[in-house]
Amino acid sequence: MLELMINSEVVKVESAKADTMLLNYLREQKQMTGSKEGCASGDCGACTVVLVSLEGDNTNYRQINACITPIHSLHGKQVITVEHLKQGNQLHPVQQMVVDKHGTQCGFCTPGFVMSLYALSKQTEKPQHPADFLAGNLCRCTGYGPLIEAANTIATTEIEDPLSAEIESVKAWMKSVQPLESAQYIKPTTRQALAKARAEHPNAKLIAGGTDLSLEVTQQLKSIPELIDISSVDDLLGITETTSGWRVGAAVPMNIVHEFMKKHFPTTDEVIERLGSLTIRHRATLGGSLGHASPIGDIAPLLMSLQGKIELDDGVNKTLYAPEDYITGYRETLIKPNQWISAIQLPRLAPNQHHAIYKVSKRYEDDIATVTLAINMTIDSDKRVKNCIISAGGVAAKSVRLFELEKVFVGQPLTQPIVNKARQKVTQVIHPLSDVRGSAEYRVKLVQNLLQRFYLESQQVETRLVQHA
């Protein structure tokens, strides 16, 4: 039976479809209408709630989108909604902060902002950029100034949380909850159990965070009768060091992957920070992105440029594929019905590798790319390009390696004439479509200009190295 805690109430749900989303349950079954439905796709943040989970003996607080979170994925966890913050007639300090900063007008978006700010207030390590916690919340009347002021104040102030008195009883309940038992929503915890579930439920869809899959329910109004939740499978969790680099579990949430990448692959920081919002990254995973193989996704071009490998598993054998081989067409991959993505393997960057990835979109944060271009060049001591990888998203029916452009650089010095030659060749190499995000001509020009940007940035790096020699 599904068992979760909503605010301070333990709720046991005997019958709920596998694809029931938390927001629908809150509003329709519990009549808790503080969480709003704006976009039903995880973009606007009006439905934001805070998820409390247990990690060891510590509680973890993170905001999530209730509209695209299946309720079964919350088994054994606590969900805090905006209704729970106010105690009697006394506003919660976070709510009072929004009032004091004049951070609300029409009020539709306010519950979502408040819950994101509440999650911020519960972080033991305060973030360097508190406004990141608001990146998944949209407002169209107040403007962000007062809300960012509230976030900055909360991040530098000790907030006395009246809900803290409940935490020990919440933790005790979490430790007592038995594993989920459901015929429609299966949640294996081991590689062998996942293989068994795949065999017994061949039509079930795999889900980790569900930030993309859930849109089939909320946007396309499809029904997903069976789901296999892989977010607790031990083999898919954790980041481990290998002899050549690292193995990143396919179900590790993107916010954790982001911290790892910032440390070991700092050139990827910006593009990962712009993957959805922090609210999305709390549930999104590398495996989920690669499983859907969107032609405008950012992860596949990134992995191509880093020479990463995708690990597929069937419970018996694991096979590694380069991303450019794994993705075979528009949202088509090499995954067989009995397989799943278990990990991504990344080699270490060498000191003479120059890596960059660029994302161009209409909106800086929480937006789909018009073009993503990733470049990784190995420069020899004689200043010639020994190896070159150029990958792109948004220029074809799938994320692609631009092999013909790579050939222009290999064996040549990285100079302006060589860059000019590559820019001229772009029109022969890519033939993108026009859509609402940009015309084909614009996409071609973007690739050309990003090649020039990479060259100019590389020259700046060289100049700094010479100055410090």
UniProtKB/TrEMBL annotation:
It comes from the Bacteria. InterPro entries: 2Fe-2S-bd, 2Fe-2S-bd_dom_sf, 2Fe-2S_ferredoxin-like_sf, 2Fe-2S_ferredoxin-type, 2Fe2S_fd_BS, Ald_Oxase/xanthine_DH-like, Beta-grasp_dom_sf, CO_DH_flav_C. Its EC number is 1.17.1.4. Residues 1-85 form the 2Fe-2S ferredoxin-type domain. The keyword Calcium does not apply. It is an enzyme of class 1 (oxidoreductase). GO terms for molecular function: 2 iron, 2 sulfur cluster binding; FAD binding; iron ion binding; xanthine dehydrogenase activity. Residues 178-351 form the FAD-binding PCMH-type domain. Keywords: FAD, Flavoprotein, Iron, Metal-binding, Oxidoreductase. This is Xanthine dehydrogenase small subunit. It comes from Vibrio ziniensis. The gene is xdhA.
